[in-house]
Amino acid sequence: AAGxxxxxxxGDPHGSALRPNMVFAVGxxxxxxxxxxxxxxxxxxxxxxxxPFGLRTLSLRDSRYRGRYHTERPxxxxxxxxxxxxxxxxxxxxxxxxxxxxxxxEGKKEEDVKNEIREVLAPLLESLMTSPEGSLPEVFDGDPPxxxxxxxxxxxSVAEV
Length: 161
What we know:
This protein has 6 helices and 5 strands. The protein has helices spanning about 25, 35-50, 75-80, 90-105, 110-130, 155-160, and strands at about 50, 55, 85-90, 140, 150. It has a 3-stranded antiparallel sheet. The mean pLDDT is about 90.
């Protein structure tokens, strides 16, 4: 109903959870989905998962959502949020690919596409440039103000940006 894709089709009672994996079906070079379906996926991800620092791992409207990743707590406790709402910066790459494909398909000018991408990436780049480590963390909280968490310097976060 949200225009999204199921995360799991069979075997998981929570398979219809809104998760970021679906952006890869839109951003790939091959057309895995009809254009209308691609647009629906992008709208759903933008509405529920996009934050200034990446994509949430679960919609904040989901009953299993956990908006804080408590780095200081024991692994069994903090990891409850790891895939249930934490923001992963590296997922921004898949989102940007999907966004660019959708905007080009809509006939947007290349400079307009680039400007929108710059706007989406600006908070992450600012975080990278101003962090004491000169890096990006593994995750951010799903809830504002999106505090950094996990590993303070994560290679896949930096590499994707």
